[in-house]
Amino acid sequence: MANEEKLVEYLKWTTAELHQAQQQLRELKAAQHEPIAVVSTACRLPGKTRTPDDLWDLVSEGRDAVTGFPDDRTWELPEEPPYAQLGGFLDDAAGFDAGFFDIGATEAVATEPLQRLMLHLAWETVERGRIAPHTLRSTLTGVYVGATGHDYATRLETAPDELLPYLGGGTSGSLVSGRIAYALGLEGPAISVDTACSSSLVALHLACQALRRGECGLALAGGGTVMSTPHTFHAFAHQKSLAQDGRCKPFAAAADGMGLGEGVGLVLLERLGDARRNGHPVLAVIRGSAVNQDGAGYGLAAPNGPSQQHVIRAALADAGLTPDQVDAVEAHGTGTPIGDAIEVQALLATYGTGRSADRPLWLGSVKSNTGHTQGAAGTAAVIKMVQAFRHDTLPPTLHVDRPTPLAAWKKGAVRLLTEAVDWPRRDEPRRVGISAFATSGTNAHLILEEPPAPDTHLGAAADAVPTDLPVAWPLSARTPEALQEQAKALVTHLTSADPTPSPAEVAHSLAATRSPLEHRAVLIGTDGAGLLAATRALAAGDDHPDLTRTPLDAAPKKTAWHFDGLPPADAASAAAVSDLRAAFPLFSTAFDEARSLLDTHLATPLPDTPSEPLHFAVHTALARLLLAAGIHAHALTGTGVGHIAAAYAAGVLDLDDACRLAAAHATATAEGGAPPTPEAYELVLKELTFRPATLALTSTAPADTPVHSPGYWHHHLTSTAPGASPDPETHTLLDLGAFSPDTPAARTVLTALARLHTSGGTVDWTPLTRRAPHPPTLDLPTYPFQATRYWLHDHTTHTTV
């Protein structure tokens, strides 16, 4: 090769390498700034706010959640405390469903309310994301929690010895995240953050970074504070930073200090591309975020305007946006006069300049409704704005008489949300900045964007579900009482839903987004009215013909499958096949595959009339359906070709070999009319590959007869004896292929699986309800935790703070 040719080849190779390197750099840069989807949210906030919808009602109606001090926390106060005895409080900070999380009463008492509430919230957040919590076990799901205010045990003078092993972990900030990871079996990073008032927004920032780096695929992020003592009031009162009436008046001339509150909030985050591919809801998108520090300023706790400007600009840069592309800011806005003025100046310098007066930056703060919820403040702001996207409205900020005169408002187009403002959709996505600053000096800012339009190819069912086909609604709980509450909540939800979901949509949503717990019920029906009637009976503790539930005193049973070898002699077989194909797409696919393979081994195509090969195809399709549903058989029995199907289900034969053997049996029988001899199987058995059984295949052949021998198959294929019969006291028997002309086959299968599911077996109902790669799921009521009061100071002696 000439030197010129070598040079050309080298340049081609170098150019290709350069293009590849540039592409990798582009992909790396894109990954570093990939948008993060907010998949779900959950919260407990003042004003009996127990859901994100409750929070929207609170802020959209302009309600004030500040109340007097709680009377259930054994607070001992001076006769004339130097502050108003007012704040934003949770209505049941002591309540906890310890049994749900397998935590004993002693440990529950010794565990701070923040850890306990976060466990409730974590389960609820996952369910709100339409994900069954048990499916996250052993996954790289992260937990990032801002946790502040660990004062639960600070008043103790002495504690009973039985509490001592638990108090250390029970009041540790590290276990706020660690306990969630342990309870759900999560193996991604679990990190607790304490940067004071910016803790939860910092936690969200860290979670977004971890998702972009691939350290986790999903992340629970948020934070909270529960005030177990009035210590925080004492501390801020001595700093003279509390409002006289206990209320935050953000950016108001009347602002005279902070109003304290408490709360907890979590969001579930996922990379946007993953969320859309997985068919998860996308409530909003985090486009960018940033964190920085005040450094040395006017004082450790004093806000630093230039640092606030820097963190806002850094978040905009991370998002790849300019200030005019952001419509509003949900501000830190605590109501301290100097702090608010400094924050307004930073917003004017970053977002306010260069904006037209007819499109100002709108400014508000949820703290005017709830008080400053400390570790939950940033997450509460995020949840508020997620709801604002949904309702196309920027809600009002309370307690503003007029804008604070300490800020130069005329230097930019920034306006206070003293009343609700319509926030209509337009060509460019709506966006909001969210700020959290802290006495620690750690600042955070996040850019939240409205969700993109959903992918049209995701969530669409491949075929409409015929309305005359039965469906199963599985419900479960840790206790019988919670199961009844679950049923009540479902009835309430479905009767008020608009539009009313179809029974099939409810069935798939219950199957795909809820974990199977110990106490179970399955409701089977074809129409919504009938299913609701059965659900009402469950809620009332009554019986119903369409209801199967776990007996209170029954011992768990094992599962046995029996495959009958003789096909029905009438039209029931064809009707059963038609019914099962319509009800279960997975059965239809498996049946077609078995029938196609049988045709390759038979002299003539398989007819639609009842026959042993057709019956065998039904058996194998049912076996595929049950195996896909995760049903583990402790014993498999069968007669005639049913025993071949049992061998296939047990893993002894693959489907092609099983079809080959079934076809050979049908051809020997059909030609001679007499039962085949052992020698008739020798040739076909030499062509088969036998594998170790993965399930227990029960044989009635002599014990020394191996499964690959002609004698073994001659025995089973010529026998009409029922074979080994499992004890009904210890086994739930699924008699596959035993269909009655009086009952649709699909209902027979669902009823049998309902008995199994409620008597010791576990059915994964998802494959039985899925009719598309990503069928739609519904928002359903989350788990009804059965809370009991656990409060440390009810059981100990303590000192007055």
What is the strand arrangement across the widest sheet? Answer: 7-5-8-9-1-10-17-16-11-12-14
The count of helical stretches stands at 25
The parts where pLDDT drops under 50 for at least 5 residues are 457-463
Quantity of strands, as a count: 25
Gross morphology is elongated
Query: How does the major sheet shape up?
Result: 11 strands, mixed
Beta-strand residue percentage? 15-25%
Sum up the structure in keywords:
801 residues; single chain; 25 helices; 3-stranded antiparallel beta sheet; alpha/beta
Task: Give the topology, please.
Layout: H1 3-32, E1 36-44, H2 52-60, E2 67-68, E3 86-87, E4 95-96, H3 105-110, H4 113-128, E5 141-147, E6 156-158, H5 164-170, H6 174-184, E7 190-193, H7 199-213, E8 218-225, H8 231-238, E9 263-271, H9 272-277, E10 284-293, H10 305-319, E11 328-330, H11 337-352, E12 361-364, H12 367-370, H13 377-391, E13 393-394, E14 414-416, E15 421-422, E16 431-436, E17 442-449, E18 471-477, H14 480-496, H15 503-513, E19 519-525, H16 528-540, E20 547-549, E21 558-563, H17 572-583, H18 585-601, H19 612-628, E22 635-638, H20 641-649, H21 655-672, H22 682-686, H23 710-718, E23 731-736, H24 745-757, H25 766-769, E24 788-789, E25 797-798
Parallel strand pairs: 5-7, 5-8, 11-12, 11-16, 12-14, 21-22, 21-23
Antiparallel strand pairs: 1-9, 1-10, 2-3, 4-24, 6-25, 8-9, 10-17, 13-15, 16-17, 18-19, 19-20
Describe the structure concisely for a colleague:
By secondary structure, the chain is α/β, with parallel strands linked by helices. It contains 25 helices and 25 strands. It is elongated.
